[in-house]
Write a structure and sequence with these properties.
This protein has 16 helices and no strands. It is an all-alpha fold. The protein is globular.
Length: 401
């Protein structure tokens, strides 16, 4: 976790002191300098150069009055993401699976030109650049000042794990924050940072120790212990990710800058649709606005609506990582969304009865949704064969010594 490194905590403390005592114009320069230092320190030269190239292409293509320029920028960003994050997956798992003779040669060639890991936060860069280019293509205003664009692209609190920003909301908040940061902003932000560290270090990290210890013994433990494990897994991902988001949002708030809420009690959701309105909100809204709706959303009939949702969530799953289990996790949630939004009509009286029960007994709806989401985390964290075996063992009292 980058936020808990000694380098970051020391550098952040020095930066915040300088930021607080500086004049507004100097704050802008200090923030920009720290963003560049942060990204360079953690990304290295191999991670910085691709982002400079993508950022420059996005900035200049977005300034064009030709929609084809913005479309080109979107294509370039998406191809860069595919190249850095999914090239090996395409060669090894797709082309290799169908026996393409050139797959191994292509994979070996990629080993020579690709960095050991994808550039730091390239997924977040691409999503925010695509958002800007898409909005420009649809007539929204440009980012006039180059420094504003660099601030939008490199704002360090949200760089690694979000929330995914929208430039129309972020830039006015950036201007307001650098001009006037209050003691209330600082104290509220500090409290949210503290809450985030508590979630991440005290809760999530200790749950991780338990999960890592139990996973190899999953088949040998009792059935009740397996369900406790599933609960721990669900809580771990929530505390880990929401804790990271709290830290990012809190650091920004300490500077007087607003980042969007990313989690809103997601495990209290009464259906999958509501869950995704509460979980990683900036990602789910991005998928809705820039994948689901452009595909047609719910405007082209029930079957097309279901297909659009499943396809959008498949891409959402792959965004988390280049592996089959992430794809299946996305499809799992796409299917769950399709069922949640259509079962009342498609199942007739049975669907109406189930819907009536969920309306009258909200706890049943929340428990069903939480259970569905929790089973999905097995797909998210483990290879498919292992996830399916663990799911089977949850309903089996058998133990293997």
């Amino acid at each position: 976790m980058i936020f808990s490194t000694y380098w970051f905590l020391t550098a952040l403390s020095i930066f915040l002191i300088c930021y607080a005592v500086s004049e507004p114009k100097l704050r802008v320069i200090l923030l920009l300098a720290f963003c560049i230092i942060f990204h360079t320190h953690f990304a290295g030269s191999a991670g910085v150069m691709p982002i400079i190239g993508l950022g420059a292409a996005t900035y200049f293509l977005a300034r064009s009055q030709d929609k084809r320029a913005q479309t080109l920028g979107i294509v370039v960003c998406c191809l860069a993401l595919i190249f850095y994050k999914y090239s090996h997956f395409i060669c090894r798992d797709l082309l290799g699976a169908i026996g393409t003779a050139q797959a191994k040669q292509l994979d070996a060639w990629l080993d020579n030109i690709l960095p050991a890991t994808a550039p730091l936060a390239i997924s977040f860069f691409v999503f925010e650049f695509v958002h800007y280019l898409w909005e420009r293509r649809h007539g929204k205003p440009i980012i006039e000042k180059p420094l504003d664009f660099v601030h939008f692209a490199l704002f360090f609190p949200s760089l690694v794990a979000g929330p995914i920003k929208r430039y129309e909301q972020f830039l006015p908040s950036l201007t307001a924050g650098t001009r006037n940061t209050s003691a209330l902003d600082f104290s509220q932000g500090l409290a949210q940072v503290a809450a985030g560290f508590f979630k991440k270090i005290v809760l999530a990290d200790n749950l991780t120790l338990y999960i890592n210890a139990v996973t190899p013994e999953f088949s040998a433990i009792t059935q009740p212990e397996r369900w406790i494990f599933l609960l721990a897994l669900s809580l771990r991902i929530y505390f880990d990710f929401s804790g990271y988001s709290d830290i990012a949002i809190g650091i920004a708030r300490m500077m007087g800058i607003d980042l969007p809420m990313n989690f809103n009690w997601p495990y209290t959701a009464r259906n999958i649709q509501e869950f995704w309105h509460r979980w990683h909100i900036s990602l789910s809204s991005w998928v809705r606005d820039y994948i689901y709706i452009p595909l047609g959303g719910s405007r082209r009939g029930a079957l097309r609506t279901i297909w659009n949702g499943i396809f959008a969530f498949a891409l959402c799953g792959m965004w988390h990582g280049a592996a089959w289990n992430f794809l299946c996790w996305g499809l799992y949630h796409g299917f769950g969304l399709a069922v949640a939004t259509n079962y009342r009509d498609s199942l007739g009286k049975i669907g109406t009865t189930i819907g009536w029960m969920f309306d009258r007994i909200p706890f049943a709806a929340r428990a069903t949704t939480f259970g569905y989401v929790s089973f999905g985390w097995l797909l998210f964290f483990y290879p498919l064969a292992q996830a399916f075996q663990m799911c089977k063992l949850l309903f089996s009292g058998a133990t293997v010594q």
